[in-house]
Write a structure and sequence with these properties.
228 residues, alpha/beta, TIM Barrel, nine-stranded mixed β-sheet, lyase, iron-sulfur, iron, metal-binding
Length: 228
């Protein structure tokens, strides 16, 4: 190969190993199994869904290109054990799978927050997949990729954001039909500003539902401020 061809190949390889990121920041994990742990969040840009309650619409567009090496170096700078790859919808960028594996190889406790609309089969099995099942109230119920449920393991979690009693009844039916509580941990969250947390808690207690109630800790502490 000529020097020009070598340079072109190197450039192409560098381009292939890039991801578009909205932000990387250190905060406390606000939900799911690792709630409360100091965590580095790697927020990828872009999402094919438009849930009506989305609190990270600022990640739909823009962002900056980062190489995998630069991402790993920035994560290491924070010197914590937990890393959460989120979005947007991180799996919308194919190189996300490579990033997840690289983070696991580096010894981090890695979680992935995904909408449940894209195939999770290729995710490194060391990653804890937090799969958001979209309720009717989200406006994106039709985007659920139900085949993902067959891939869940005890290492994973599924999350329902509940907007109303109708959403709650729908989610209960999904949990029962797929016996999700026997596959992995199931999380129910109230949609902020749409359903009072106490109301959802009372429903879960009354029904002895085999799910874990959660409130998004970061909303209580920082009111959805970017970078927290």
């Amino acid at each position: 190969m000529t020097a020009v061809a070598d340079a072109a190949a190197a450039s192409a390889a560098g381009q292939a190993e890039r991801l578009k990121l909205t932000e990387i920041f250190l905060s406390l994990q606000g939900e799911a199994r690792d709630v409360g742990w100091p965590t580095v969040f790697v927020r990828l840009t872009g999402c094919p869904l438009r849930c009506q309650y989305c609190d990270t619409a600022y990640a739909f567009h823009g962002g900056q290109w980062w190489t995998l090496e630069a991402i790993l170096a920035e994560v290491a700078r924070f010197d914590v054990r937990h890393v959460c790859v989120t979005g947007g919808e991180p799996l919308a960028q194919k190189r996300c799978l490579q990033l997840l594996t690289r983070l696991c190889d580096a010894g981090y406790h890695v979680s992935l927050e995904t909408s449940g609309a894209l195939d999770i089969a290729g995710v490194d099995p060391r990653v804890s997949r937090v799969v958001d099942i979209k309720t009717p109230g989200s406006g994106e119920e039709a985007r659920n990729l139900w085949a993902n449920l067959d891939l869940l393991t005890p290492h994973d979690q599924v999350k329902f954001v509940i907007c109303s009693r109708a959403d709650y009844d729908w989610a209960c039916a999904v949990v029962a039909r797929h016996r999700l509580h026997t596959r992995c941990e199931v999380l129910f969250s109230p949609s902020a500003g749409q359903l009072e947390p106490r109301t959802l808690a009372d429903w879960i207690v009354a029904d002895r539902l085999p799910v874990r109630f959660q409130i998004q800790l970061h909303k209580l502490l920082w009111n959805d401020a970017p970078g927290h």
